[in-house]
Design brief:
With 240 residues, this protein is an all-alpha fold. The chain has 2 domains: 167 residues, Glutathione S-transferase Yfyf (Class Pi), Chain A, domain 2 (Up-down Bundle); 66 residues. The protein has 9 helices and no strands. Helix 2 packs antiparallel against helix 3, helix 3 runs parallel beside helix 8 and helix 8 runs antiparallel to helix 9. The protein is elongated. The protein starts with a helix and ends with a helix.
Length: 240
């Protein structure tokens, strides 16, 4: 098995191309519909997701420079402290230095190392936390889109369309055939599936446990919503 076969991952350009085709399909079947406009908006978000996912794979120069600067300053201060301590030891005769002074010097050194160690640890993780915050914000945008897609199919009740006698004066008006209803619901299901794939791009760009958990939650949401849609499609299949 070659290396190319092992290195398999989602390709954002193909997801965007598939969504472009989905928009064309919806517009051909339901021209000027709100669903086609929503799918067009999803294409815009998909293109942004492609750029955002690629950006999170790359290092952030400003933060990297900050990390290097902190490390340099930390090493400089430690060196300065050592250079300041050695003359004191020499003045007091080295071994004859007062035990209390040695203890205080060692305690100060230890505190300095702990403080700078904690600062370095915090700075090193700053880039990851910054990217994590951005991705969680982007995932919230995708989650909102998933709920909007669900709202579009929510009132598409097969029983009302397939059994006109069950209608009430306040039932929604539909100008769809059984075939068109099935296609409409299928388009909604495809959009939800693509939202899940867009979310997965972020999990590939940053292997962070918090991000992976948020992506899994969003994929679970889109899968559950898609399952509800396919239950409606199955009802249409049983009746027709």
């Amino acid at each position: 098995m070659n290396e190319e076969a092992i290195n398999i991952r989602l390709e954002a350009p193909r997801i965007v191309a598939t969504l472009d085709q989905l928009v064309a399909r919806i517009q051909a079947r339901f021209p000027e519909s709100n669903l086609s406009k929503l799918c067009a908006a999803l294409v815009i978000v998909a293109r942004k997701t492609e750029r955002r996912a690629e950006a999170t794979r790359r290092p952030i120069p400003a933060l990297r420079l900050l990390i290097v600067s902190v490390l340099v300053v930390a090493l400089f201060l430690v060196l300065l402290f050592v250079l300041f301590l050695v003359p004191i030891v020499s003045i007091h005769g080295g071994i004859d230095l007062d035990i209390i002074s040695i203890a205080l010097s060692l305690e100060a050194s230890l505190n300095l190392i702990i403080i700078f160690g904690a600062a370095i640890w915090f700075i090193i993780g700053l880039e990851r936390r910054h990217k994590r915050g951005l991705i969680l914000k982007y995932l919230h945008e995708l989650r909102s889109l998933a709920h909007v897609v669900d709202m579009h199919q929510l009132t598409k009740d097969p029983n009302v369309i397939l059994n006109p006698q069950s209608r009430t004066p306040v039932s929604p008006e539909y100008a769809m055939s059984e075939f068109e209803l099935a296609r409409y619901l299928n388009y909604c299901s495809e959009m939800l599936a693509h939202i899940g794939k867009l979310a997965a791009l972020y999990a590939e760009s940053l292997t962070d446990s918090v991000v992976i958990e948020a992506v899994n939650d969003l994929e679970t949401l889109t899968t559950d919503l898609g399952r509800k849609i396919w239950q409606k499609i199955m009802i249409i299949g049983k009746i027709t």
